[in-house]
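Shipment paperwork, digital attachment
Item: protein structure file
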Amino acid sequence: MEPEYIVVAVVVGVVVGVGAGWFIANVLTNRITSKAQLERKRLLEEANTESERLKEAARQESKAWIKDQREDFQREVREVRADIKNEQRRISKREDEIERGMELLRVKESKIEKGEEALVSRERGISAREEEVEHVHEEARDNLQRVAGMSREEAEKTLLTRLEQDLEHESDALISRMIERTQEKVEERAKDILAASIQRLASTYCKEQTSTSLELPNDEMKGRVIGREGRNIRAFEKTTGVDVIVDDTPGVINLACFDPIRREMAARALGQLITDGRIHPSRIEEVVAETKREMNELIQQTGRQVSIDLDIPRMHPKLVTLLGRLRYRSSYGQNVLDHSVECANLAGMIAGEMGLDVQLAKRCALFHDIGKAVDHQFEGGHPEIGGSLLRRYDEPPEVCNSAASHHNDVPQESIYAVIIQAADSISGSRPGARGESLERYIQRLEKIEALVTSFAGVKSAQAIQAGREVRVFVNAQRVTDKRALRLCHDIAKQIEDELTYPGEIKVTLIRETRVTEYAR
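Attachment content:
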């Protein structure tokens, strides 16, 4: 083949190839463009749908937000209106009070003006009276000289005698008034001293109960405490002097003894045995002996700590022991040692207010119930026992007399005895200091109501506020208003004379007249 034909063939082939490529590229481009337009259309539709959905969601959220804001605004408006109404009522009430105060001031001013006029009138009367008295004296002197024939000196002597008698009478009346005024001031001063001392006393309630029972970890331990044929429990009772009561109550063992020290020691020893788990007669004796030593050390430490806290030096070692024993003695649910410390603080404050020896007052108060530490060992009441013990250990006479006389068993010989009696009453009668059983509490309320209803004209009585107040309802036909005052006083006096109670009892007498009519 000739070269020209080859070149022509190549050119034709290239042209055909380029045309075919262009055609194929054009077809592919058209297809891709068509697919892109379809995809674009689909995306636009989805975007429009999502936009509509978001617009609707935003619209709903805006409506909810607007609704919440409207409710909050309305609530705030209501609160503001209520505050405005309350403020208006308060202002109106304040204006009424101011108006009443102005009226009272006008009334007082009127009374003061009238009083000033009365004083002026009284001064005039007194001046006229003095002139009249002077005139009478002159006439009396002249008459005496003329009728009795007395000289001027004799007349003056007679007048001086009469004047001395008049002055003596006036001085007696003045002294009586001064005594009454002094007694009122003394009572007020005593109340101020007691109130200041009570207010300064920041003492917690010292009511506590003596523990007499122990919890067991399981019922098997109860059998181990009893021992074979009861040998462990017999050994424990013999060693401690405490009765061990084992009943059907699950997980509990009770200890009974009149001596609180022995009961506490037995409780500690039994608790240690239960914790240790080794319970047999020899081990019981060993643990009880160890517990006795610990109790003695604890009692001594407690007594020394009290003397340090109250700054009371030079205390007999036996008295230190007795003070420590009071930690385990209670009276009406009140711990005796806490009560004694509280009385010491009160007595020291009262003595300080009165300018007396604070340390001596604290010493008297701390030992006033010392007899309760050994009252089960000696005959007699704890005041008598305490006074004897304190005299035996060379305590000052004021301390001995304070202990012996704080229940009025013997006469009080010093001001410190009176202070200790007052401090003892304050500590024992304040709310929460002492407790009583439910049975005694109910009996006390019943006695109050029965005593009140025994009076003529009383319909019913109600003891309220734990017996600190009694409300008395009387028959209006049988008891008049004037009689009601006297009856209320008689009831209060009768309660004071016949009943024993802590603090005071408020008697409120109610006389009510009811008139009922029917409109038909």
